[in-house]
Amino acid sequence: MSDPHPDVVVIGSGPNGLAAAVTAARVGLRVVVYEAQPTLGGGARTADLGLADGIVHDLCSAVHPLAVASPFFSAFDLPSRGVDLLLPEASYAHPLEDEPSAVAWHSLDRTAAELGVDGSRWRDLFLPLLEAPEAVVALGLGSKRSVPREVLKARGAAAAARFVGSVAKVARAGGAGLFSKARARALLGGVAAHSPGRLGTLSSAGVGLMLAMTGHRDGWPIPRGGSQTIVDALVADIEAHGGSFVTGAHISDSSQLPPARAYLCDTTAEAAAGIFAEHLPGSVTRSLRSLGHHSGVAKVDLVLSGPVPWRDPNVGLAGTVHLGGTWSEIAASQHAVSQGVMPPLPLVLASDPTVADPSRETSGLRPLWTYAHVPLGCSVDVTEHVVRQIERFAPGFRDVVVASRCVPASRMSEHNANYVGGDIAAGSVNAYRLVARPRPAWDPYSFGLVRTVDGTTARVALCSAAAVPGPGVHGICGYEAMRTVLRKTFGINEPVSLSPRSGG
Q1: How far apart are CA 35 and CA 14, in angstroms?
Q2: CA gap 149, 181 in Å, rounded
Q3: Nearest to 440 by CA among 211, 283, 220
């Protein structure tokens, strides 16, 4: 009689949990994924919010700079699995009130040319990185505990050294120290502010430079039909290799889980500590709970009767728009949020997927995806804040708004338990916490062995954005956590093929 118990249990079905499950299923292990919500996908789900017939919205992630650049997704090969990654003409744009907008085109030369006197400095910042982009991504998405093989190559070493130097320079000098005009400063400030917290830090500089580089390399794609298509491709591969799913299952204690040889948590660090509290050493539990949270976002979904009437038409060619004004305005807003103060004009990120995907428009209506940076746990309905920020750069915007819905930061965890207080990064993000994530340990994933209910031992690991390399739809946390478990628990050291042309 065959053993009915799974080899691996994954708690949470966000992109990282699914990446872990894909990796385990592909080596023949029995995998079960538990998800608290009725649908799979975590922050990469797409749903009908009931705002207008036929209009669907992405619940969190909508634009995917790392869907091509991530080593996991590159190997998984989303396009070969039917995921159509559409590229808007411009990766991102940053409108300003008193001068032309700044636009990050795919072409580095075109971007630099339009930045005028700062163009050569923009080119000098990114051209060396684009000579070996794989090394930059490997460094940014690596474990911070070893030197990636891409960096050991001649061009890779040079690009990595330039990246590290540029991160330090941006953190030290800021936009004003690098560029002489507002447009280039704002363009860099908007992308750097994808990292939670203040501008002018090593973490914001590193995140900003890597994302900006991908905008000039692969672009920032939008999946046709929404982010759910990425989730569906992962789910299909897991099922094709024998994996299964249990939805509507909120796991708060390990006694709710079947016996297994490994448990991987696509959860916050403190949730993982709570689930396995009776089995983990007190020092591990305390360190997991110390990761904490820093700031939040509030989500505003809108339905429009037409395109956003941007004052500068070029802004309408970008898949992502950063709305925060000048570098100084962004810095002030981010600083207020870090101090727990709601700014009158918070930084807003907006995306109209119809710019790249006309199929998202139905009966003349289209979705607009936005979120605003707000203090952790903020309960304010920021709809008016978002509309006012967009109106600054798109006069008449209110006239095209048909419907809207706000999810305040305080309620973001209702549709994804990892978003505590609106923290979509699943834990504090700073230079220290991008290395010591979730705790200061050589192995950033495994918590060691625990004794299960049937008296056997099992390994517990964290595979969410609360582990290295941190937030982003890249799957690396799940993939690397599962690789660690495969080595330590199952004795599997061989590379895992993720290609759809190898067994699936």
Answers
A1: 9
A2: 38
A3: 283
Using CA of residue 385, residue 91, residue 41, residue 449, what is the dihedral sign?
negative
Ramachandran sector of residue 194 (left: φ over 0; alpha: ψ -120 to 50; beta: rest): alpha
Describe the chain by its helix, strand, coil percentages, rounded to 5.
40, 15, 45
**Judging by beta carbons within 10 Å of its beta carbon (0-12, 13-18, 19+), is residue 110 exposed, middle or buried?**
middle
Pairing of strands 366-375, 295-304: antiparallel
What count of Cα atoms within 13 Å lies in the side-chain half-sphere of residue 257?
Answer: 32
**Amino acid, single-letter form, for residue 68:** V
Closest C-alpha to 382, from 294, 299, 303, 304: 299
What does pLDDT average to in each consecutive run of 10 residues of the chain (504 residues)?
78 98 98 98 96 96 92 95 97 95 97 97 96 93 88 91 93 87 96 90 93 96 97 98 97 94 97 93 92 95 98 97 96 95 96 97 97 97 98 97 98 96 93 89 90 80 96 95 97 94 64
Strand order in the sheet with 401-407: 102-105, 90-94, 318-323, 348-351, 366-375, 295-304, 401-407
From the CB of residue 134, how many other CB atoms can be counted at a distance below 10 Å? Answer: 19
Q: In this structure, what token pair is assigned to residue 262?
A: 């490994």
